[in-house]
Design brief:
single chain, 257 residues, alpha/beta, two-stranded antiparallel ribbon, 13 strands, globular
């Protein structure tokens, strides 16, 4: 059973780079479309490379090949009568491709003839967007209905996470962004990973082994593994807080004897 880790943070804090430091062979499903080449140029404060080599990393771009024209139309995404927005149709193929990859890994930990130790899904933010778009196409509707969020919750905790936890891998790393919510009664603001909805984002930590917040301070990418600011990070493996955003810094906590 792999350790499933969410690395959440603001944009441009180095989440993808740090996820790529996990054990190889590593399969990177790239929903953000960032690619790999530039990551081998990034240095630590001491001048050494964060990622000395891209060897052992297989990256699969999972972005739409065709993007329709921008349509500005009142009611285009509102409830009631309307058509499924054309931009949503590309999500169906990508979800199908994702399922093919996961089914292959579930069989024996291999994909396209390579055996993997680590799977990186980068990022949940974009992946969940594809879920919503896929629902629009499946149900032939212009916008999501309230019942669709219940469907996504069932998918999230009944299929998505159980499937990942059953993979014959060592690590599954999920990068994600952060959103905030204000309680209208108390005025309290909390932060959480982006989920299929804000309510479900609050529950993501219950489904994983580790929930870390990545921050970038003083030229260093760091993982916060305990509550930090308004974000409830946590570690079931008692990873030290803070620590360098690199697998080697957490290896002794995560690797079982």
């Amino acid at each position: 059973m792999p350790k499933v880790i969410i690395i959440a943070g603001n944009p441009l804090t180095g989440k993808t780079l740090s996820s790529l430091t996990f054990p190889k062979n590593l399969l990177h499903i790239d929903f953000d479309g960032n690619g790999l080449p530039n990551y081998k140029k990034i240095l630590k404060p001491d001048g050494t490379l964060v990622l000395p080599s891209l060897e052992g990393i297989t990256s699969i771009p999972m972005i739409k090949k065709e993007v329709p024209e921008l349509v500005l139309k009142t009611g285009y995404l509102t409830k009631g009568k309307g058509v499924t927005p054309s931009y949503a149709f590309g999500a169906v193929e990508l979800i199908s491709q994702y399922n093919t990859i996961i089914n292959s890994l579930a069989h024996d930990g291999t994909y396209n003839g390579l055996k993997f130790s680590t799977l990186v899904i980068d990022s949940l933010t974009e992946f969940f967007r594809l879920w919503r778009e896929n629902l629009l196409v499946t149900n032939s509707q212009p916008s999501l209905a309230i019942s669709d969020y219940g469907t996504m919750e069932s998918l999230l905790f009944g299929q998505f996470f159980p499937r990942l936890k059953a993979l014959p891998l060592d690590y599954v790393i999920l990068t994600d962004h952060i959103t905030a919510e204000k309680d209208e009664l108390t005025g309290m603001i909390t932060e959480m990973p982006v989920g299929t909805s804000k309510a479900q984002g609050k529950m993501l930590g219950k489904a994983v082994t580790e929930l870390w917040r990545q921050v970038f301070t003083d030229g260093r990418a760091m993982w916060r593994t305990r509550p930090y600011g308004l974000f409830e990070a946590g570690s079931r493996s008692h990873v030290s807080d803070p620590c360098e955003a690199n697998f080697e810094a957490v290896k002794s906590f995560l690797v079982q004897d």
